[in-house]
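Handout, section B. The chain below has 267 residues.
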Amino acid sequence: MLRGLYVAASGMIAETNRTDTIANNLANSDTNGFKRDVAINKEFEPMYLRRINDEDPRLDVTSFKRFSLHKNPPRVGTLGLGAAIAEIAIDHEQGALKTTGNPLDLAIAGNGYFGVQTDQGVRYTRDGAFFRSSTGELQNMKGQAVLNTQGRPITIPADASSINISPQGDIYADGQRVAQLMFVDFGPDRRAILKQGDNLWNPREGANPQPADGEIQQGFLEASNTNVVSEMVELINNYRIYEAGSKAVTTQDTLLDKAVNEIGRLS
């Protein structure tokens, strides 16, 4: 019975973590370039069950008139020992592109990240909502400098009347090329770069940036790939699973109460 409590409780803990993941997805449904997370369950190692005394040749309950299954004891089945979250995976599906008309709004179609300078060093993002500061420096909405291919901040002339950006990241001010955006990817291994927070990504140790094969779309922003309706349905389903685990804990507690206070009572 105690094992039943642990199994049900582990399921409730797993569903609590899944709820947190879904809530984070919903909170970022309007975040530019956000990639939703998916909580993946794993089962604890199951325990094989055999019938009592099947292993003891003196008390072989399968023996009958010289017939015995002792060499291959029959198994009753397996008992699961609970569940846990194995991984929080990232869904890299492309988000929808929305038109803004702002020449400094950039969306990535396909693979790739923009490089920005943070207090922790160079980090990467798919949020291309940029603006030109009072000093002409290209920055994101957090005031972090957008970097060029040499890892330096990009400065756009203050008197530039037209700004054009090519699909490969070349920046032209009044027809003159002034810089090229750091536009990189980290190969086919999606786990080479992980979420850091604040819509930033941090590559793992040993991950080397390389030119991205995606394209930059000027005047667009990439929306979050979170589907609010699907997440809400998943949240409801998650609540029902959690509720089932809660009822299982209550049932196990009731059985324990009867076993201790009624079955074991001396008259």
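Note. The chain has two domains: 2-44+80-91+227-263, 97-222. Compare this with the example in section A.
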